[in-house]
Every structure is written in structure tokens, then in C-alpha cells.
Specification:
With 406 residues, the chain is mainly beta. The two termini are 43 Å apart. The chain contains 3 helices and 32 strands.
């Protein structure tokens, strides 16, 4: 009996050691450019940002989104919103339906057999919640109870059978609110513990991932066994707080851990995003839970450049409004030229990162030029990740779509 017990303990430690080693390994990313949306689909083929996305029945779905298909934003062009629901079937794009209205800047959530699209905006913030599924190979479009407020530029995640939506603009105002909807037993949205961020948090990244909690040791027949338990937690990255009153705008580099269940609230991680000397950020970026305890994060704007742009009106309001004021003239010139620089000038984040939720550690996977995007839409099925369009500079979208395997 003793020999059998020692053998079991040895096997347990061997398996634990293999698992730990596997978690430490940095996955090798393979990038494959897939078929772009063809010109026959109109303006949406020029590339969009902030579209709804997801993988349904093994196929990539892209719905809505917005762009400047004719005259660019720098030349005063009008932003166009879309309602098309498109599907990549193998290497062929098909239009399989339409949303009831044009929309972008909403939240996409994926369940086993459904895509859920929450909020967004067109000419106004939206409260609508749409559910897409296939029934006998035919697209079915349903709804869930509407949000109590219009929410756009927020982030969301499926967490313990509930949809969570955090931050963004609520009825046009920056917000730190968190809302949830129980997919198993609910008829309305619930307001949860808010993010502890004064002034709101727009365009954050929210991801649900399994966290391992150590709960001490136990002695069994003289051997010490490490006890642990696991639970799903929410992790929030990036985003920005707009200027307000006497406070300038700030791009968030903190990581917030969200707890809902036996204990509730948000705790700031002691390991913020390592922006280093390049001043990169995850604001406008994307995140995906992969493997055990790891979150892959990519994209985002340059913190310094974006904060300067956000704060120009704030600084102008506090400076002297005279032709001889050097600061005022400089700020006005910078504002007028902001959209006119080449892509490289904006220094969007091209570094892909891993965040280990157990160890609160960051590791760089490397620099990938194709990841230097803001407002790209991301879809994942756990085996591959699709990166759909997004901005390569303010106002300019790319039509490229990438598939990452790891």
C-alpha cells in the first residue's frame, strides 16, 4: 500500500511539473492573411473598425462596423456605419443577413452556439442586444432584453454564464459602470460593482480567464501536498479616461482584476502594462484568453501621442487665446495636422504580449507589424484567432484580415 501511495504521489508531482512547464512556454504565433472582403460588397470592403465578430459553426462572422469609404477623415469625410452580416465560408465571403440597423463600437460575446452583439452606436448610442445562431443552416436573428442605457465603446466578456459589459460611454458620457446579464436565468440587466476609475474608462479590454488560488498544504502519509482551487475572474486592460474639468485625459496602463461571486469588487494588479520607453498601450487593443492562466493581448495606440491628442482642447481651454501665445499657436497647429502624418508617426503598438494571471507576469511574444492596429475586431475559438481590419492610423482602416494559430 505504501509503495502504491508513493507511486501515485510521484505521478502527481510529475504531472504537475509537466503542466507548470507547459504554462511557462511562450506559444509560437503563426500569422496567415486570409481572404479580404471583396469589392463587390461595397464600402465595407475597404476595411472597417469596431465591427461585431465571432466564430459560429466554425465560420468567421463579421457584422456592422464603420469607416470612411469615400473622402477620408482628414479631408472632412463622413463616417459610414454598416448593417451587413457577412460570413467567411472557407475562402469565400457571403452575405448571410442584415442587422436591424447600422452599428459599430458594440460588444461581441460568443457562447457555444450563438453570437451575442451588445449595444454600440450609429448616430446615437444603442441599447439593443442581438443574438445570432444557425437553424438548419439558416441564419436566425433574435434579441435579448435591451440594455437600460445606451452603451458604446465598452468592452465585454462571457463570464460564468453571464455577459459582462464594462466601461465605455453611457448615453454619451464616459462611464465606469459594469452591467451583467445572466444567460441562464434573467429577464433584465443588472448593475454590478463599478470600476474604481474616476472619470470613466473608454475602449478598455475585458477578458475572462481561469485563476488558480493556492490554499496551503496538507500532509498525507508524511508527504506534503499543495492544495489549490481555481475560479474564473475578469481582467481589464487599457482604455482611456477623457479630460474633464481640471483633470487632463489619461491612458490607462493599470490591470484590474474583477471578482463576482462569493466576493465582489475590483482589485488593481501590482503589475501594470509594461509600456517601456516606447510608450505603447492597450487602449483600443484586444485580448483573448488562451491555454491555462494566459491572456494574449495585442494592438493599441501609443500612450504619449494619444494623450497629447486627447488633451489639446483641454490645454487650449486653459491657455491664453491670443495670436501671440506660442503654446496656443502650437496646439492649434498640432490639432490641424494630427490626421495628416504617415502611418509610422502614430506608433501603434506592434508588440504582442502574454499576461499570466496566476503570477501577474508579462512576457513579450515579439513584434509583429500586422498587429499595430486600433479598433480591430477579434474572434477566437481557442485554437485560432482572427484579427479583422481595424485602424492603421486615425481614420484609416485596413482591409486585411489575419488568422493566428499557436
Amino acid at each position: 500500500m505504501k509503495t502504491k501511495f508513493l507511486l501515485l504521489v510521484t505521478i502527481a508531482f510529475f504531472l504537475f511539473g509537466c503542466k507548470a512547464k507547459q504554462k511557462d512556454e511562450i506559444p509560437q504565433l503563426t500569422w496567415l492573411e486570409v481572404e479580404s472582403i471583396p469589392e463587390s460588397f461595397g464600402g465595407i470592403s475597404k476595411g472597417v473598425s469596431a465591427a461585431f465578430t465571432g466564430i459560429l459553426d466554425g465560420n468567421l462572422i463579421v457584422a456592422g462596423g464603420c469607416n470612411f469609404p469615400g473622402v477620408t477623415a482628414a479631408e472632412g469625410g463622413k463616417k459610414v456605419y454598416y448593417r451587413d452580416i457577412l460570413m467567411l465560408d472557407g475562402s469565400e465571403w457571403k452575405k448571410i443577413g442584415e442587422l436591424p440597423e447600422e452599428v459599430a463600437y458594440g460588444v461581441s460575446v460568443v457562447t457555444d452556439d450563438k453570437l451575442i452583439f451588445v449595444g454600440g452606436q450609429n448616430v446615437k448610442p444603442l441599447k439593443s442586444v442581438y443574438v445570432l445562431s444557425f437553424e438548419n443552416d439558416t441564419l436566425r436573428l433574435d434579441t435579448l432584453p435591451s440594455l437600460p442605457v445606451g452603451i458604446e465603446n465598452a468592452s465585454g466578456a462571457l463570464h460564468n454564464n453571464r455577459i459582462y459589459v464594462a466601461g465605455g460611454n453611457v448615453d454619451g458620457n464616459p462611464s465606469s459602470d459594469v452591467w451583467s446579464f445572466d444567460l441562464l436565468n434573467s429577464k433584465h440587466w443588472t448593475k454590478e460593482m463599478p470600476l474604481p476609475v474616476e472619470g470613466g474608462l473608454v475602449q478598455p479590454v475585458l477578458v475572462s480567464q481561469l485563476h488558480e488560488n493556492s490554499s496551503g498544504e496538507k500532509k498525507l502519509n508524511g508527504a506534503k501536498l499543495k492544495l489549490s482551487s481555481s475560479m474564473q475572474q475578469l481582467y481589464l486592460f487599457g482604455g482611456f479616461t477623457p479630460a474633464s474639468g481640471s483633470r487632463p485625459a489619461i491612458v490607462n496602463q493599470d490591470v484590474w482584476e474583477g471578482y463576482y461571486g462569493p466576493k465582489e469588487g475590483w482589485v488593481k494588479s501590482e503589475k501594470p502594462f509594461p509600456s517601456n520607453v516606447l510608450h505603447s498601450s492597450l487602449s483600443g487593443g484586444a485580448g483573448v484568453a488562451i491555454q491555462d492562466s494566459l491572456i494574449l493581448l495585442l494592438g493599441g495606440v501609443n500612450r504619449q501621442i494619444f494623450e497629447d491628442a486627447l488633451n489639446r482642447n483641454y490645454y487650449l481651454s486653459t491657455s491664453k487665446d491670443t495670436d501671440t501665445d506660442t503654446l496656443t499657436n502650437r496646439l492649434r497647429t498640432e490639432a490641424a495636422e494630427y490626421l495628416l502624418h504617415p502611418v509610422e508617426w502614430y506608433r501603434f503598438n506592434d508588440e504582442v504580449w502574454l499576461y499570466n494571471v496566476n503570477r501577474k507576469e508579462w512576457k513579450s511574444i515579439g513584434n509583429f507589424p500586422q498587429a499595430a492596429l486600433a479598433g480591430a475586431s477579434v474572434a477566437s475559438n481557442g485554437k485560432e484567432i482572427y484579427i479583422v481590419n481595424g485602424e492603421i492610423k486615425p481614420g484609416i482602416r485596413t482591409p486585411k484580415i489575419w488568422k493566428i494559430t499557436f
